[in-house]
Specification:
By secondary structure, the protein is an alpha+beta fold. Among the domains are: about 160 residues, Alpha-Beta Complex (Dipeptide-binding Protein, domain 1), CATH 3.90.76.10; about 230 residues, Dipeptide-binding Protein, domain 3. Helices cover about 25% and strands about 20% of the residues. The chain has 20 helices and 22 strands. The strands form 5 sheets. Strands 1, 2, 14, 15, 16, 19, 20, 21 and 22 form a 9-stranded mixed sheet that branches. Strands 3, 10, 11, 12 and 13 form a 5-stranded mixed sheet that branches. The longest helix is centred in the last third of the chain and has 18 residues.
């Protein structure tokens, strides 16, 4: 998932994965607290602070970590994990998932929607007291605006737009009643529509450029009149360009002073609203701390130093850091509590099929045989990982468990390359092949984001093995924002990245459907397969779980055979947090709701 909609947050690192909305977020790789059921292990090391009696109190700050600056803070066009980590505090949704049951419960809505028998009409009733951070009321018209902005084909939000394919129209029955009409049922509509977060129309469209264009008309964008299209395009240009650093939402926290509260490469500061419409209600987003400070530290060692010195309140440790003596001392354990979990995020190598050398699936399959997943998990992750062969979360019923492991087998890789016509004809140690009359070497660059030691180690190990086989592969680390732009525009050969997955029913359309193989969308390896498209389309309208399992069984077989990615591993997350916080609960789904974290008065260290 890239993260387009702001589903009700559970744990601020993994809220999208738990909600199952837009269930794939491009992950820069910082380890945050998350886990599937049954995979959490506690590493206390020292007694937790004495239990605190009485209700939570307000005050103090929560200082968190970002590995990179967000790509941007536009609530629709941003798609990276860093942006999601910021925006999830600012944009609450109609509904969210209950921490105990994972059933939906209301946030801005007063209750669950009324759903027609044919599942083609959803009616939500809104809290009349909900307001945006400027004090203006949240109305059904703001949700209409949000739908129109997302449906606008010129708005750079294809990752969000594809989840609204079934929406054909919407109406504000009155200021606090929203009706959404669908052209066809979609089995995740309860989650997708419930995950809608309102954008204030008066703020994001101050000139009313799309005010009189209906959702139904925007849904048929190509049929708009010339005058309507001109206004829709003018709105999109302004929306795409003008809101990268100044989001406004209806959440309990706001970016109050962008000029001073965003310092590139250093920090983003969010401040609690004194006028929040659901005071003292963490389940609707009101946290107990006065500020959320997200510090940007593009170095794993510097991050750990900052945590140990008290400048960060929660961090993800790398496997190497977790094994080291300095995170296992009595002093460290006295200050920090730590938990090890399996997080639903997989790492992969993506092969850009716009590059001719990767268009032959035999080449993609062959390159996978030079990747020793087991050795990487042992030597780089210290055993804190699980190899995977599929993009579906391994604890989901849809996961295809009988896929044979794509094991390390250099001899088989060499044989496949030879079968595909790659031989060292000029005896320079690099395989080559004649393509369109030109002798082309099997040479390419693998990129990944700087600051991620695990991906760097994977990249170096992989290219070393490939070079032994006559593949001239190189590896380069790139700043997150620069790398993300390269990925979005297909300006790369191969990439090591990660996707967050849904622990609720998945929808892989965003990643694998051919319609998403466009600049800015999520099918950045340019994978196109007619059978996969048909399955992805049929799956979305199938309400029978067993039939969906059969469909995804075939989809995973196709991906296994085609190898658009070399799927690597799920990595366990190791999270430490400051023991001064009370109210830290890890739920069975593996997450924690940081809105519930609070600091007793005598332990508070920051003031307003």
């Amino acid at each position: 998932m890239r993260d387009g909609y702001r589903a009700g947050p559970k744990n601020r690192w993994e809220r999208a994965a738990l909600a199952g909305l837009c269930a794939w977020t491009l992950a820069c790789g910082d380890s945050g607290p998350s886990a599937p059921p049954g995979d959490a292990s506690r590493d206390d090391g020292a007694a937790s602070p004495e239990s605190v009696e009485g209700p939570p109190v307000r005050g103090d700050w929560l200082v968190l970590h970002l590995l990179a600056d967000p790509e941007n803070l536009n609530p629709l066009t941003s798609s990276d994990a860093a942006a999601s980590a910021v925006l999830s505090w600012i944009f609450p949704s109609l509904l969210t998932l209950d921490d105990e049951t994972l059933a939906q419960r209301p946030v801005i809505a007063t209750g669950l929607p009324e759903v027609s028998e044919d599942k083609l009409t959803y009616t939500f009733r809104l809290r009349p007291d909900a307001t945006f951070s400027d004090g203006r009321p949240v109305t059904a018209h703001d949700f209409l605006f949000t739908l129109k902005a997302t449906k606008n084909k010129v708005v750079l939000a294809p990752h969000a737009r594809n989840y609204l394919n079934s929406v054909k129209g919407a109406e504000a029955v009155d200021d606090h009643t929203l009706r959404i009409d669908l052209r066809e049922p979609y089995f995740l509509n309860d989650l997708v529509l419930g995950g809608l977060s309102p954008l204030p129309r008066h703020y994001y469209d101050p000139d009313g450029l799309i005010e009189d264009i209906s959702v139904a008309e925007m849904d048929q964008f190509d049929d708009l009149s010339a005058e309507q299209k001109e206004r829709a395009e003018a709105f999109a240009k302004q929306f795409n360009e003008d809101y990268h650093r100044r989001p406004m939402g209806a959440g309990a926290y706001e970016l109050r002073d962008p000029e001073n509260d965003i310092v590139t490469g250093e920090k983003i500061v969010l401040k609690r609203r004194d006028d929040f419409w659901a005071p003292g209600d963490p389940k609707r987003g009101d946290g107990w701390v006065d500020r959320i400070v997200l510090r940007v530290i593009n170095d794993q060692e510097a991050k750990l130093v900052s945590f140990k010195s008290g400048d960060l309140d929660a961090i993800g440790l790398t496997p190497l850091q977790y094994q080291r003596p300095d995170t296992n001392t009595a002093r460290y354990k006295q200050r920090a509590d730590t938990i090890v979990t399996m997080r639903p995020t997989y790492t992969y190598i993506g092969w850009n099929q716009q590059r001719e050398i990767f268009q032959d699936r035999r080449v993609r399959r062959a390159l996978g045989y030079f990747v020793d997943k087991d050795a990487i998990i042992e030597s780089v992750l210290f055993g804190l990982g699980v190899p995977v062969e599929s993009p579906i979360y391994i604890k989901r019923a849809e996961y295809k468990r009988d896929l044979p492991a794509h094991v390390f087998d250099p001899a088989k890789g060499k044989a496949l390359l030879a079968e595909a016509g790659w031989r060292d004809t000029d005896r320079d140690g690099v395989l080559d092949k004649e393509i369109d009359g030109q002798r082309v070497p099997l040479a390419f660059e693998i990129i990944s984001n700087s600051g991620n030691d695990v991906r760097k180690a994977v990249g170096l190990a992989v290219i070393d093995e490939m070079k032994r086989a006559g593949v001239d592969a190189t590896f380069r680390e790139i700043d997150w924002s620069i790398m993300l732009n390269k990925v979005k525009t297909f300006d790369y050969d191969a990439v090591i990245l990660g996707w967050r997955m849904s622990v609720t029913p998945p929808d892989s359309y965003q990643i694998w459907h051919s319609s998403q193989a466009v600049p800015g969308a999520s099918n950045h390896v340019f994978f196109k397969n007619e059978d996969a498209d048909r399955i992805l389309e049929e799956y979305r309208t199938e309400f029978d779980e067993q039939k969906r399992i059969v469909l995804y069984d075939r989809l995973q077989q196709i991906l296994y055979e085609e190898q658009p990615y070399t799927f690597l591993f799920l990595q366990k997350a190791i999270t430490s947090w400051d023991r001064r916080f009370a109210g830290v609960t890890w739920y069975d789904h593996g997450g924690t709701d940081q809105n519930e974290w609070w600091v007793p008065t005598d332990r508070q260290k920051y003031t307003q």
